[in-house]
Amino acid sequence: MTLLETIWLVMRKDLLIEFRSREIVYTTLFFAVSVMLVFSFSFVREGVAVEGAAPGILWVAIAFSGTLALGRAFERERQNETLRGLLMSPAERPALYLGKLGGIMLLLVAVELVTVPLVAFMFQAPLFRYPGLMAALLLTGTLGFAAVGTLFAAMLVRTRSRDVLLPLLLYPITVPVIIAGVRGTAALLQTAPDLPMARAWLSMLVFFDVVFVTLALWTFEAVMTE
Amino acid sequence: MDFTSLTLADISRSYGRRWALNRVSLRCEAGEIVALLGPNGAGKSTLLSVAAALLTPSAGRVKYGEHDAHATPALRQRIGLVGHDLYLYPELTAAENLLFYGRLHRVPDVVRRVDAALERAHLTSRRDDAVQGFSRGMRQRLTLERALLHDPRLVLLDEPFTGLDDASTSALVERLAELRANGRIVLVATHDLEVIDGRIDRAVMLRDGRLVALPPAGGSLRDRYRRLGSQLT
User: Fold this and answer.
1) Alpha-carbon distance A99 to A94, whole Å?
2) How many CB atoms lie within 10 A of CB B120?
3) Which residue in chain B has the smallest CA separation from A222?
4) How far is the C-alpha of B30 from the C-alpha of B182, rounded, in Å?
5) Residues of B in contact with A160 (CB under 8 A)
6) Tens of pLDDT, residues A95-131
7) Do B106 and A90 touch (CB under 8 A)?
8) Which CATH superfamily is domain B5-86+153-232 in?
9) CA distances (Å), B181 to each of B30, B32, B185, in order?
């Protein structure tokens, strides 16, 4: 079995389980929408949104709901110790990691398909003015966040206080990703869009993705053996 | 890649300041069933995890034949483990669970093998039902098939009789004999001494992280276990 086949096998299994339970998508969506609603009461006055609020709100919603999804995705593997079942197989560890990462990425993208239009609507943000650049910022930002999150969620799966530890470890390390996402999105949304700046932040995100995914692939086996 | 023996050499494993295993040595050969006995918390599950290369020992070496367990990941293909937990996805059906693990283990002709495994587990009629609706016994039968689907050389069983009715227990005992006849190395941790009495090749006892061999003769397995236990206290 090739690396790609293993990745697809793990990803398909996770998506099939989610399709049957719809647990992560529903809870994550509910949480993201709640976050946006709360912010809308604070940042929308008389039908007009405070300038520059939308990028921050969008990325806070993605980061918080992403943390929720990461925790649940690995809680499933812990409940019946299926993670050990995966680790007992001869499948390459990087393939297992990439399969889990792919499943989480697809779930987060599904959540973003709802949250992005909602942010655009609630905060009058022109998120679809440059759809290609916006999609690239979202995808690279989500990948950077999920790459670190998948590694940490797997690492913490057997610790008792994993729900507390995951955000404590995840947010400080992914702060550069969130900042790059917020600044890149802000560059696109301002009255006179600053495309070179948005592209510069996108390049930063690609750089973070390469670093985080490489580090995660390198450390995943050692982390999982214990 | 294959092997015909499992060697645990001077294995120690600590969790913080507590030693779960303390200089444990054990060698098992192909065609042998070795029972791993001991009270709760004695370190049996830890020993099985170390033998499966899922846990790295704090000291000592695990060898499959001449190969170092941690240096030869390809040998995971030849290991089957039934753990205390069942390693099954409750949302997936019985067939989906077996197909997933079969493909992950690169089992050839996996669909036919899964059909045969479901038949052996008496679950053919429930193949498309989600595992979350199964009884403990049905899950246990399915998990045994999951562990044996890829025809492993080393079979590690942690309390495999839990939740099984009489018929399923007899079927499992027969299966163990089959595994022995087929040259498998079987290490089984259990408290069901009466069930395995007379059906194993030898037994060892773990107590406070130390391993002691049970005398091969001198009454039933339960008597020998009790006697050794009282000598060690």
Assistant:
1) 8
2) 15
3) B56
4) 9
5) none
6) 999 999 999 999 999 999 999 999 999 999 999 999 9
7) yes
8) P-loop containing nucleotide triphosphate hydrolases (3.40.50.300)
9) 9, 9, 10
